[in-house]
Amino acid sequence: MAYEFDWSSIARAWPYLLDGMGTTSFLVAVAMVLGVAFGTVLAILRLFGPRPVVALAAGYVNFFRSIPLILTIFWFFFLVPLVIRAVTGNPYFAVGPVYAAIAAFVLAESAYYCEIIRAGIGSVRAGQLQAARALGMTTAQALLYVVLPQAFRNMTPALINQTVALLKDTSLVYVISLNDFLGAAAKIGQRDGRQVEMFLFAAAVYLALCSLGTMGVHLLQRRGAASRR
Amino acid sequence: MITITNVSKWFGDFRVLIDCTTRIDKGEVVVVCGPSGSGKSTLIKTVNALEPFQQGEITVDGVSVGGLGRGLPKLRARVGMVFQHFELFPHLTVTENLTLAQIRVLGRSKAEALAKGLRYLERVGLAPQRDKYPAQLSGGQQQRVAIARALAMDPIVMLFDEPTSALDPEMVGEVLDVMVGLAGEGMTMMCVTHEMGFARKVSHRVIFMDEGRIVEDCAKDAFFDDSAERSPRAREFLSKILRP
Amino acid sequence: MTYAWDWLIFFKPSVTGEGLYGWMLVKGLGWTVLISLVSWLFALALGTVLGILRTVPDRWLAWPALLYVHCFRNTPLLVQLFLWFFVVPELLPLAWGNAIKQMAPTTGQFLTVVLCLSLYTAAKVAELMRAGIEALPPGQRAAGAAMGLSQIDVYRYVLLPQALRTIVPPLTSDFMNVFKNSAVALTIGLMELTGQSRQLSEFSAQSFEAFTAATLIYMVVTYGVVLVMRHVEKRARIPGMLGVAR
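Structure tokens for the assembled complex are given below, as produced in the milestone run.
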């Protein structure tokens, strides 16, 4: 190959890249916490709510799972500000790309987290809920103290996997020119003509981070299988 | 204490309980037996409304179970239940299993709940296991803890749903001993069980169910000794269960 | 500021002179479908092979497959696309690199997206295939071997027919993922459905109509795929067996 590598370009771009990584981390952290929280609410609604609510929640989950995440990001970046402008009458309302991205990720990822949590709750023996009720606990208490603790223990591997997927998904904010880690690498690559080094480096970093997550899951699963008698 | 009047339950075409009527008075020990699928587990679960029913009425200590709605947890707190598969909470220690409902449902203080829980744990002979997790105990030990957990709520009646069916034979005795002790103290008990030895020893009355109906409801001696007077189904059941 | 609704925008000519706006969306949908189908076919073929390789006892075959799957599943799709589009042409021998750069832009973009999406999805299919095979009772492999079947025949006549049936549901959801992932093509300039809807919104200022149309089309196609796959699953079911491998 005729290409001449210049790896020092990475060192020169370090602060910019670090900044991008900060944005990525922020997106992942917030989307994960809010996504799991909202996903838990959705899961409980789907499992224990009245019929119309179950249908609504199911519709929500199926909707966000049937359109590309890029399109969801566009919805929040381009259209939600329009709606809010119309509703509040404030013609200057704008949503920064970070908040549009967070909103898109929280809503979309919560659909996936909901399915995981639903399966997790389903993996707890029915007798546990009965026993809790027999002791006089309300459904809320039974869920809070007996079912959910066990469910979350069971679904930790799946939750971690979904969070790794979330990390990969955050790279899509490129489409609204938000400078996450990939965006920063791409920008510098273009500016300095060092796209090869930048993209290779970015790929290596993502690979390392995601590998941590997925190998952690493997360890957890192996330990979980071993401790079961 | 417990009255069951014309209770029926069905799933579409399948009739689970057909017009069941009986009563259990304070201090009575009643054993419910019958072949698989006779509805006995379902019947006992209607008493604390874990199973809903479409027809009839059930009252516990004068309170109608059917119409309670929000008040159900309060009622259930006064009715103790022991399950076939123990259903201890695996993520909590034995002590935490004993105190959780006392604190959250009855509003007892931590100290009070602990004292009471440990007292009943001692009573079933498992005080040294207080800090263990259920998975570290044998089946018989788990069931005894489950009984202590139910007793710690100071129930007015105890329901047992096949408490020894999931146990290895050598552990059945330790659980039955606890139940015999309870009966001796005058606890009102309703037990679904196959253990006829226990029934003979300790029960006052026996209810025999078959295909959703209560076929026999008589005093213990009448059931076991006057079997000639009993229905053909009951006699057939007895002959299979009580092999010489 | 009020938004001026215009649902007839799809029948109006584009300011770029490309034809009606609605036609732009149709072209975009065409690219989406083409990218998805071609990538899916390649991914199925490659993924099946890789999945089988992951389950064979021979380490020299199993480990490279594991490495492939790990790398392609632990980097974001967009990063992989950029690697193929921006980096690989530079790393190839000069003649090849130049040939690639001189390809018609659309052809280059299409081939890159298909290559990237095929390899990415093949890794996922490989994992599904592996799970399906490993979920079979171990006795099946043993019984096949005991009858004297070669390893290839054991896979061909005993393991794969069963495994393939059980993984139809997760495969369906994987195809839907391919369909959704095709949207990344817009980042290198290939205007598939999502890209076209964004262009539509920019040129016509009718953002709501544009994105709504794209959203509805995706939902319709997705639902259609689900229906088709349910049909396939029903016809493929073995009487008496329930299990679904996950």
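Residues 8-227 of chain A form a domain with the MetI-like fold fold (CATH 1.10.3720.10). The two ends of chain A are 57 Å apart (CA to CA). Further analysis is deferred to the final report.
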